[in-house]
Design a protein that fits this description.
22 helices; Topoisomerase I, domain 2; alpha+beta; TOPRIM_dom; Rossmann fold; 6-stranded antiparallel barrel; binds zinc ion; 37% helix; single chain
Length: 710
């Protein structure tokens, strides 16, 4: 009779073992002993998932070949398999679990961790009726946290529905992917597109968010507008005041007409300070970090991708320096607050300038950051009790060091005073028109002491009733398109299902439903990049031509692309975890959705001219060897007997031969020629007169091909 602790992966098992008095490594497990533990305890581990869902052809070999006739694929029973490279460990783990009388689930403290453990127990046919089952739930991998966790093990059965939730998510993703990907791929191939088009329950609406943004930018037509401003002089000091209420004039003529109506022009004149308001304002430090807000901030500051940030935080968690990373919570409990408060000096010593940290005295927990009622599974990402030594900090990967520093400052700032400033608003009357100017002056930097420089915008000293010299002027502006998504802003958009909400709004508004989970968003973006639907250039995301085709096709099923609907599904999935909805109920809704898609999409796609045009445009692009060097608009491609320009109908007669001076002109040579204007030295030209071979460079002179000899 024994106790078996089931960890998610070997590194986690080693962290647990290191927290106990004695440990000895075995094959696929670690024996441990400690006064905290019953005699005969072992830690064993998965390699992440040891069990995965089988592919359709493992249900029915004929499903290996995709066919519309074979859809939908709705198995009565889902088959799970153990991949070959994990079979040995699966045998070891299930062997140990069978013998155990007590099992401690110690996989990651989240839904996916639950799924990993319960899937192994299910496929291993572990008879849980006759075993005691516990759950280890921790927020950090430090020795003290692990020991505390083992002293306070929770009943394992309490988490069963978290596993059901994760499993429902997994099956739903399987059903959508296994049915929608063949459907769309086959239909698109019917339209002439090549390759595989992969559809995902969360992946596709995420891609579509970027697509909508790209479209909004492409369709954006900038418009000029004019503003009326007043240049004001108080003595020799100048400042700008804006018309109040502000108005955008469509043309300079409209602005001048407005001036005329108010008996004004652009000459110098007098203005009066009609009102002067001084207000003391304050700004609290930002909320503590959840994973997504950390991903957004680290992308903004360091241009790191969402998965790079997740990997860095995970590594800092495994090094025991940061708390559990995959959290969507911005709060800590009094517990964490207590130990942070007692060790502020130690944490501050890690700052570049430790003296810059001045806590607000007397210390007291602030509800903005410390609220036990808002911490459900994991608290915000903060530093653990273990602080890195100078040598350990130097050894951190560059991004890890930056992220540790970011979390350190954000956490310490929550112990500092707000930033206080005085805002001065001056109203200036010019005839009957009112202009307003404002300036900010810092009173107390507060938490901003740990941030970069704050720029004040000071107004010159003014008095009520003061007379100023004023010159009105017009300022031309242009409306701006929305900004491209970055991985940081896309993560934020996924969290709000595309709604434009600040982090502050998200915390305050209840029931903001997002798409994906805190743990999966980074990998969803990665998959979209890997499949070539999304590309990131200079930290800006765009949908690729293949991704555009996918989006245009998927549009024929609005449910498939709607972030809002996906967010509602996410909410329904959480209800499975809270026992407010059954797995069957959720899966039957997914199946109804798939049935509807299979019934409606083929007809809609057939009549979609827009999609057909996109497919042929992409084909032309793929066939293209480059832009025509003569007309600069057509694309050069292989026309069979020669290379020619697609702008033939538009009058461009540029062609290149397939053979020149006895040498075959391959696509690579043509590509170099039209893109660079000339080639390197090439062998294989044949003299007509002598029949001898010679080498030369090829050069394009306008539309004429020439040989170049050095
Ligand atoms: Zn041309």
């Amino acid at each position: 009779m024994s106790t078996v602790i089931l960890a998610e992966k070997p590194s986690q098992a080693r962290s647990y073992a290191a927290a106990f008095a004695k440990s000895q490594r075995g094959d696929g497990f670690i024996s441990v002993s400690d006064p905290l533990l019953p005699a005969d305890t072992v830690i064993t581990y998965g390699f992440g998932h040891l069990v995965k869902m089988a592919l359709p052809d493992q249900y029915d070999a004929s499903l290996k070949r995709w066919s519309l006739k074979k859809l939908p694929i709705f198995p009565d029973q889902y088959i799970y398999v153990v991949p070959r490279d994990k079979k040995k460990q699966f045998g070891i783990v299930t062997g140990l679990l069978k013998q155990a009388d007590t099992i401690v689930i110690a996989t990651d403290s989240d839904r996916e961790g639950e799924n990993i453990a319960w899937s192994i127990m299910r496929e291993g046919h572990i008879d849980l009726q006759h075993k005691r089952l516990y759950r280890l739930w921790i927020n950090s991998l430090e020795k003290s946290a692990i020991r505390e966790g083992f002293q306070n093990l929770r009943p394992g059965g309490n988490y069963y529905f978290r596993y059901k939730e994760a499993q429902t998510r997994q099956i739903s993703d399987w059903l959508v992917g296994m049915n929608a990907s063949p459907l769309f791929t086959l239909l698109l191939r019917g339209q002439g597109a090549k390759g595989v088009y992969s559809i995902g329950r969360v992946q596709t609406p995420t891609l579509y968010l970027v697509y909508l943004r790209d479209m909004a930018i492409a369709n954006f037509k900038p418009e000029d507008y004019w503003l009326l401003q007043a240049e004001c002089w108080s003595g020799r000091k100048k400042f700008i005041a804006k018309l109040s209420p502000d108005h955008k004039f469509k043309s300079p003529a409209e602005l001048e007409e407005f001036l005329l109506k108010n008996q004004l022009d652009f000459d110098k004149r007098k203005g009066i300070v009609s009102d002067l308001k001084r207000e003391k304002k304050s700004v609290s430090s930002p909320r503590l970090f959840s994973l997504s807000s950390l991903q957004t901030e680290a992308n903004r500051l360091f241009h790191a991708s969402a998965s790079q940030v997740l990997n860095a935080v995970q590594s800092l968690y495994e090094s025991k320096f940061l708390s559990y990373p995959r959290t969507d919570c911005n709060f800590i409990t009094l517990n964490e607050y207590g130990y942070l408060a007692q060790n502020l000096g130690r944490y501050a010593s890690l700052l570049a300038d430790p003296a810059a940290f001045q806590p607000q005295m007397p210390l007291a927990p602030n509800k903005r950051y410390v609220d036990s009622s808002k911490v459900h599974e994991h608290h915000a990402i903060i530093m653990t009790k273990t602080t890195p030594s100078a040598a350990q900090r130097a050894k951190m990967a560059p991004l890890e060091g930056k992220i540790y520093d970011l979390v350190l400052r954000r956490t310490l700032e929550s112990f500092m005073k707000p930033y206080f400033y005085e805002k001065t608003t001056a109203s200036i009357k010019v005839n009957d028109l009112l202009f307003k100017a404002s300036g900010n002056v810092t009173l107390d930097l507060g938490w901003k002491t740990l941030e970069s420089q704050v720029k004040d915008s000071e107004l010159p000293p003014l008095e009520q009733g003061q007379e100023l010299t004023v010159k009105l002027k017009e300022k031309q502006e242009q409306t701006k398109p929305p900004a491209k998504y970055t991985e940081g802003t896309l993560i934020a958009a996924m969290k709000t299902a595309g709604k434009d909400l600040s982090e502050e709004d998200q915390v305050i508004l209840k029931d903001v439903e997002g798409i994906g989970t805190e743990a999966t968003r980074a990998s969803i973006i990665d998959v979209l990049k890997k499949r070539g639907y999304l590309e990131s250039k200079q930290n800006k995301l765009s949908v690729t031509p293949t991704g555009i085709i996918l989006c245009k096709a998927a549009e024929s099923e609005p449910l498939l692309v709607s972030a809002e609907m996906t967010a509602k599904w996410e909410k329904a999935l959480k209800q499975v975890g809270d026992q407010e909805r059954s797995q069957d109920n959720f899966l039957s809704q997914i199946k109804r959705f798939i049935q509807k898609m299979l019934a409606e999409v083929p007809g809609k796609m057939q009549i979609d001219q827009n999609l057909a045009a996109q497919v042929s445009e992409k084909k032309a692009q793929e066939a293209s060897l480059g832009t025509c060097p003569v007309c600069k608009t057509g694309q050069i491609s292989d026309k069979g007997k020669f290379y020619g320009c697609s702008n033939y109908k538009g009058g461009c007669r540029f062609t290149l031969p397939k053979k020149f001076a006895g040498k075959t002109m391959g696509k690579r040579i043509v590509k170099t020629l039209i893109n660079k204007g000339k080639t390197d030295k090439l062998d294989g030209f044949i003299s007509k007169k002598t029949g001898r071979k010679y080498s030369a460079k090829l050069k394009l002179n306008g539309d004429k091909l020439e040989l170049l000899f050095d």
